[in-house]
UniProtKB/TrEMBL annotation:
Keywords: Carboxypeptidase, Hydrolase, Membrane, Protease, Transmembrane, Transmembrane helix. It comes from the Bacteria. The chain crosses the membrane at residues 6-24. InterPro entries: Beta-lactam/transpept-like, Beta-lactam_cat, Beta-lactam_class-A. This is D-alanyl-D-alanine carboxypeptidase. SUPFAM superfamilies: beta-lactamase/transpeptidase-like. It comes from Cytobacillus solani. GO terms for molecular function: beta-lactamase activity; carboxypeptidase activity. GO terms for biological process: beta-lactam antibiotic catabolic process; response to antibiotic. Residues 59-175 form the Beta-lactamase class A catalytic domain.
Length: 374
């Protein structure tokens, strides 16, 4: 009995050591990552067509890799919603001061599905004072700054999906799939299981075979249903049990897709301050350019804005900047089918990569020389 006891202790200790070594190696690999990692990643994966990049600098197409490849946008798509919001406010169709109930937003929120984004946004308000309403303009800011999916789906309802889906065309972009409710799409598997009495395996097969238009229509139908019959806490908790990695992969792959070519073009329109009317920028810039609240950024930038996105498999970023010397940069980066290590490394280095490109002429030359031929 004593031998068995010590054998178990030994196995547990060994298991702990192996895990500990693995964690240390993981941390060491992540810690050693630098901006040049993105160059290496493109050299390794560019031929897979699951990674794309468009960088424009002072009206020159600096780098274009797989720029016409449709890839999932994740939360970067929220830029389109922000543009439609600003246009409707500028036209007087929507009141930015309209008070929105936090309880109303809660109907669109499902815990543990957005990386804590909506909860973090709520904490910002509740840490200042005990409030239960916020202006619509702050809902829009929370969609971009905190990447709240709940705020996004609420704005889709207020602004109208048809209006939002006309934005890309108005910008001269044809390679952009329609938007649909992000949160509601998460419930498609559980709704199929309930209505068609399917097992998880059968539901997975049904989803894989489902036409993309049908998938979007399911998401929209669920969105409308949840408005009239709000989800209970129990129904939201049940979603977490259903959404395994297979279902998450389908949800991720079927998110609205576009190209880095298209988003570099959108960034150019935002950066120039000439495409949209001044009244639109009056409401759009405070949402898109929250970077400029930082006094350090104001020291060297005239203006800058960005929006990123991620899932367990996707990492995206779209940004624009004009520095105080008048240099203008637009960047769009999309990647799909990433490993956990790749995802984590990109999260760690993307900001540094952008800053180095904006500030370091030698780094810009390196990017062009290393990536131009891919």
């Amino acid at each position: 009995m004593k031998i068995l006891f010590w054998l178990i202790i030994g196995i547990v200790a060994l298991f702990g050591i192996v895990i500990g070594i693995g964690i240390l190696k993981y941390k060491k690999e992540i810690k050693g990552t630098n901006p040049e990692y993105i160059i290496d990643l493109f050299k390794e994966k560019a031929k897979d067509n699951n990674i794309s990049l468009s960088i424009h600098h002072n009206n020159e197409k600096w780098v274009e890799i797989n720029e016409k490849k449709l890839l999932p946008l994740a939360s970067t798509v929220k830029i389109i919603v922000a543009i439609e919001y600003a246009q409707q406010v500028a036209e007087g169709r929507v009141d930015p001061k309209k008070e929105v109930s936090l309880q109303e937003l809660d109907a669109y929120y499902v815990p543990k599905t957005d990386g804590g984004a909506h909860k973090a946004w709520l904490s910002k308000w509740r840490s200042e004072k005990d409030i239960d309403h916020v202006p619509l303009s702050e809902v829009a800011k929370g969609m971009i700054d905190f990447s709240s999916n709940a705020n996004t789906d609420y704005l889709m309802q207020i602004l109208g999906l048809e209006n939002i889906n006309r934005v890309a065309e108005s910008l001269g972009i044809t390679n952009h799939e329609p938007l649909y409710p992000i949160v509601s799409a998460l419930f498609i598997p559980s709704r199929l299981m309930t209505e068609k009495k399917l097992s998880k395996i059968e539901t997975l097969q049904e989803l894989k075979q489902m036409d993309l238009n049908d998938y979007r229509n399911w998401a929209i139908a669920i969105h409308k249903h949840n408005l009239s019959q709000p989800l209970t806490s129990q129904e939201k908790q049940q979603l977490i049990k259903v959404m395994n990695m297979d279902f998450q992969k389908i949800w991720s792959d079927r998110l609205t897709r576009s190209t880095t070519e298209a988003y570099a073009s959108i960034m150019r329109k935002l950066n120039s301050k000439e495409f949209f009317h001044k009244n639109v920028h009056e409401h759009l810039d405070p949402i898109m350019e929250q970077l400029m609240r930082n006094p350090i950024n104001r020291e060297w930038l005239q203006h800058a804005g960005q929006k990123g996105g991620s899932t367990a498999f996707v990492f995206t970023m779209a940004m624009y900047a004009t520095d105080k010397d008048g240099n203008q940069t637009e960047l769009a980066f999309f990647a799909n089918d990433l490993t956990l290590i790749e995802q984590t490394k990109l999260s760690c280095v993307m900001n540094e990569f952008q800053l180095k490109f904006l500030k370091d002429s030698e780094f810009r030359k390196l990017i062009k020389s290393e990536l131009a031929h891919l």
